[in-house]
Design goal:
Helix 12 (262-297) runs parallel beside helix 16 (362-376) and helix 13 (301-328) runs antiparallel to helix 15. The protein has 511 residues and is mostly helical. 82% of the residues lie in helices and 0% in strands.
Length: 511
C-alpha cells in the first residue's frame, strides 16, 4: 500500500468536506451573524460533538483499532466478525443510554457548561436547552458511523469514512437555506439538520461494510475476552480524551461570561484552524494508527520507527507553512468567508484575534495526531493520558493569566500553547522509551523548510496588504483569496524544489 497515495486520497476528501464546511459556516454567518442565536447553537452542538470525540473518534477508536487489527491479522475472519458484533452491541447499548440521559438533563448540562447564558438572558438559556435536546441523538448515529469508519480504515478503505463528513455539511446547508422559514426561531433548523446529517453518515457506509464482510448484527456478550480488552483500554483512553474536551468545556464556560459573540468568534476561528488540522493531521492519524498497529503486532520495530519518521517529516513539510500562513492571512480569510450580512467588521476583527492566537498551536496540534497513535498502536494509553492531564492543568493556568488582558483571544492562545506543550512531551517520551529513531537528513530538511516558509510569509503579507478584503462580492473576494493562496503555494514549493527537495522521498510503501 502506498501511504502517500492514501494520504492524498484522504486529504482531498477531507479538504472537499472542509471547503463545504466553510460554505456552511458562511451561510450560517450570513443568516444568523454572531450573537445570541448562534452562541446557543454552537454550545448545543459542541456538547454532543465532544461526547462523539470521547466515545467514538477518540477513546473508543484508540482502544478498538489496535485490537481489531490484531484480530484481523492473527485470529481469522469469523473471530473478527464475532468480535465486531459484540463491540457494536455494547456501543449501541451505551450510546442509547447516554442519549436518553442527555435529553432529560439538558437544562442542567447548559447550566454547567454555559452558566453565563442564564445570567445574561433566560431566552438564550431556554433556546440553548431546546437545541441541545434536539441535537443530542446525533451522538448515537455519528458514534456508530465512527465505529463503521474505524473498521473500514483497518481494511484500508480510507476514502469512504473520509467522505462522510460531507453529508453533515450538505444537511446543514440545505436545512439553513430551505427549512428556516418553517421553524420558530429559525435557528432551530440547524439542530434538526445535525441529526439528519448523523443518520446519513451512518447509512452511507453500511453497503461498504457489507462488501468487506463485516456487516453484522450487534450482539451483547460481556464475557468475551476481546470486549474486556477494549473496555480495559477504554478506561484510561476516556480519561485522556476527556481531558482535552474538558479543557474546551472550561473555555466555553469562560467565554460565556465574556462579551456576547465571544463563543461564536472562537467557533469561527476554530473552524479555520481545523481546516489544515483535519486535512493533514486527521488524515495522517487515520493512516498511521492501523499501520503502526500492524507493525507492532508483527514486532517490526524498524518499520514502526520509519513510519513515525515519515509522518513527522510530512508534518513539518506541510503543517509549518500552514501554521504561519494562517496567522499572516487571517484577516483575508475571515473577511472572504464570513464578513457578509449580519457578520460585521467588528466580528471579523474579534475572530481574527482568536485565529492568530489559535494558529500558534497548529503545528503542535497536527504533531499530536502523529505522535499519539504511536502509543495507542502499542496499546499504551496511559502515557498520553498523563501528558494530557498535565496539559489540562497548564491550559487553565494560562487561561487565568491571559483572559484578563486578551479576553476571548487569551482562551485561544492558551489552547495553542498547550498543544505545543503536549506534542513536545509526547516526542520526549517516544525518544526516552527508544521507540523512535530519527532518520538521517533532518537538519538539512528543516533548514530548507524554514527558508521556504520565510519567503512564502513575505509574499503572503505583501499580497494581503494590497487589497481591501471587506469590499466586493463573495465571488470577487474568493477569487482574490484563491490567487493569493496559489501564489503562496508556488513560492513555498518552488523554493523547496530550488533547494533540492524531492517529493519522491516522501513516497512510503508498506505491505
Amino acid at each position: 500500500m502506498n501511504l502517500l497515495k492514501s494520504l492524498a486520497t484522504i486529504s482531498s476528501m477531507t479538504m472537499g468536506s472542509r471547503v463545504l464546511g466553510f460554505v456552511r459556516d458562511a451561510i450560517i454567518a450570513r443568516f444568523f451573524g454572531a450573537g445570541m442565536a448562534t452562541d446557543a447553537f454552537f454550545v448545543a452542538f459542541k456538547l454532543p460533538n465532544l461526547l462523539r470525540r470521547v466515545f467514538a473518534e477518540g477513546a473508543f477508536s484508540q482502544a478498538f483499532v489496535p485490537i481489531l487489527a490484531e484480530y484481523k491479522n492473527q485470529q481469522g475472519i469469523e473471530a473478527t466478525r464475532t468480535f465486531v458484533a459484540y463491540i457494536a452491541g455494547l456501543l449501541t447499548l451505551v450510546l442509547a443510554f447516554v442519549t436518553l440521559i442527555g435529553i432529560l438533563t439538558a437544562p442542567f448540562i447548559i447550566i454547567l457548561t454555559a452558566p453565563g447564558f442564564k445570567e445574561e438572558s433566560l431566552e438564550k438559556f431556554q433556546l440553548a436547552t431546546t437545541m441541545l435536546q434536539i441535537t443530542f441523538p446525533y451522538i448515537f448515529f455519528i458514534s456508530l458511523s465512527s465505529l463503521v469508519g474505524a473498521i473500514l480504515n483497518t481494511w484500508n478503505r480510507f476514502s469512504v469514512p473520509a467522505f462522510v463528513p460531507t453529508l453533515l455539511n450538505i444537511s446543514m446547508i440545505v436545512c439553513t437555506l430551505f427549512l428556516t422559514p418553517y421553524f420558530h426561531p429559525p435557528v432551530l433548523a440547524l439542530s434538526v439538520s445535525v441529526v439528519i446529517g448523523g443518520v446519513l453518515q451512518l447509512l452511507y457506509q453500511l453497503p461498504y461494510l457489507k462488501k468487506i464482510g463485516m456487516l453484522v448484527l450487534p450482539r451483547i456478550n460481556l464475557k468475551d475476552s476481546g470486549v474486556w480488552r477494549v473496555l480495559k483500554q477504554m478506561g484510561p483512553a476516556i480519561l485522556g480524551v476527556s481531558v482535552g474536551q474538558i479543557s474546551l468545556i472550561i473555555n466555553t464556560i469562560f467565554a460565556s461570561f465574556l462579551a456576547s459573540g465571544s463563543v461564536s468568534w472562537m467557533y469561527y476561528a476554530d473552524r479555520l484552524m481545523e481546516f489544515p488540522a483535519g486535512v493533514l493531521g486527521v488524515a495522517l492519524g487515520t493512516i498511521l494508527l492501523p499501520s503502526l498497529a500492524k507493525s507492532f503486532s508483527k514486532s517490526d520495530h524498524k518499520q514502526y520507527s520509519e513510519l513515525l519518521d515519515w509522518g513527522l517529516k510530512l508534518c513539518f513539510l506541510l503543517a509549518l507553512p500552514s501554521t504561519v500562513a494562517l496567522g499572516v492571512i487571517s484577516r483575508p480569510l475571515i473577511s472572504t468567508l464570513f464578513e457578509y450580512g449580519q457578520f460585521t467588521l467588528n466580528d471579523t476583527l474579534m475572530t481574527q484575534r482568536a485565529l492568530v492566537a489559535y494558529s500558534i498551536g497548529l503545528l503542535g496540534l497536527i504533531l499530536i495526531k502523529v505522535l499519539a497513535p504511536a502509543f495507542y498502536s502499542r496499546q499504551d494509553i496511559k502515557t498520553p493520558v498523563k501528558i494530557a492531564i498535565a496539559t489540562l492543568i497548564l491550559t487553565q493556568l494560562m487561561n487565568l493569566v491571559f483572559i484578563g488582558p486578551l479576553q476571548h483571544a487569551g482562551l485561544s492562545l492558551s489552547i495553542g500553547l498547550a498543544s505545543c506543550f503536549n506534542a513536545g512531551l509526547l516526542f520526549w517520551q517516544l525518544r526516552k522509551k527508544q521507540l523512535y529513531y530519527p532518520q538521517s537528513g533532518w537538519y538539512k530538511f528543516l533548514a530548507k523548510v524554514v527558508i521556504a516558509v520565510i519567503l512564502m510569509s513575505a509574499v503572503l503579507w505583501l499580497g494581503s496588504e494590497l487589497s481591501n478584503w471587506s469590499t466586493g462580492s463573495m465571488l470577487i473576494r474568493i477569487g482574490r483569496l484563491f490567487l493569493l493562496v496559489i501564489v503562496g503555494v508556488f513560492v513555498y514549493f518552488g523554493a523547496l524544489i530550488a533547494m533540492g527537495l524531492k517529493i519522491k522521498q516522501f513516497i512510503k510503501r508498506i505491505d
